[in-house]
Sequence to fold (428 residues):
Amino acid sequence: MLSPDTLFEGETGNPLMWLVWIIPIVIFMFYGQRIQLKITSGEINKNIEKLKKYKEDSKKGLLDYLKKNLNTTDEAPKKVEQFLEYFTIMPVDVDPNGIVPKIKHLVRSREDYTRAQVKSLSPSMNALELSKIQNILEVVTSLHMLHKIVRHLYLTAKKQNNFPLILPLQMMMPFIMEQADALKDAVPALKQGQPMGDGIGPMVVGKLMLGTQKKTITFETVYGEMDFEQRKLFLLKAEGPAATVGRPGDAVEILVKEKKPNIIVMVDAALKLEGEDSGAIAQGFGAAIGGIGTDRFQIEEVATKNNIPVYAIVIKQSIKEAITLMTKEIADKAKEVESQIYQTIRENTAPGQNILVVGVGNTLGVSQ
Amino acid sequence: MIFSKKEKQIIAYTAEKCPSCKNELKRKFKEGDFLFAPSTECVSCKVPMVIEKIFGEPIG
Fold:
């Protein structure tokens, strides 16, 4: 029979075997955290190198594109380098009342300035190329920022030998890398002017707009009118095939004032949860629009003031699918989304009423 | 890594449709293609086909 006394009988008498047990225990007691820090920081360091590579590659891609297609001035690399360090100071939010117009003003000013600066790189640049460069520049800036923030957190933790500080970074790393991978893969689609997953909303509405007279309603945003079962449809989207989301907030405000729609139907891409199918369609209520929130605020305000119900139809996709070349699964859903728009209109309006249909998203490669 | 996946190469395709005979054609994407633009001529109707879809598909 085994007893605790006899279990290690052979080894207990040997002091060397005692050391074999005790030394690792002592090492792990005093240096365990440091060992773990070394292993974790090695992994994070690898990802920082990856982020650096993504940033450098996308920047090089942008500069090559500028040189090859747009005959830019010799100052282009210096200017691009400057763009990467641009920052925006958000308004004070201690008293949040009236903050949205301030954010809108800041974002618009930044957009206008960037547009003017990009345009100055090559006087021969047309509107389509300008929008593409602006989008690629945004990708490079985002990758630059991700790299800088991750490196900062890593170096701070390392400098202070602060293991708890590196833990949240380790947990966030897969999400950061997923975003960085998506951004890196967005560059080829942007360069070639291919529609992205986010363009499914403009794609559906753009198809409905074919054959209608297109009118510019606000900056880079167009609308058309069509009849549907004795109802009047006002179709709104960003002006394609440029890489722009237009100004849906302003456009909806103007159209509500002028055309007095009875309902608003918004079609947009939405981020799917892990486990959900790409291209799955869901219906709901509220303003389906992403971004910093100013457009959504504007649409919600005008809809509430005028008592207009807002219906949303979203097409689920991952972050990567949203900003890279549209997948077949998503493109194939266009027809189904179109019939869901019609169904929503039939169910919620009567003949003689007006309906505003908004295709939200980046309209790169999608005309109307 | 046990969870790492090998990235598949994505090829961009353009799907065109003839507005009169509804014949569909899928070809490789070429720069300058965009949705709803007139494209190659329909073999049977001799009218320009319209780009219906542009999408990426993994190879292999």
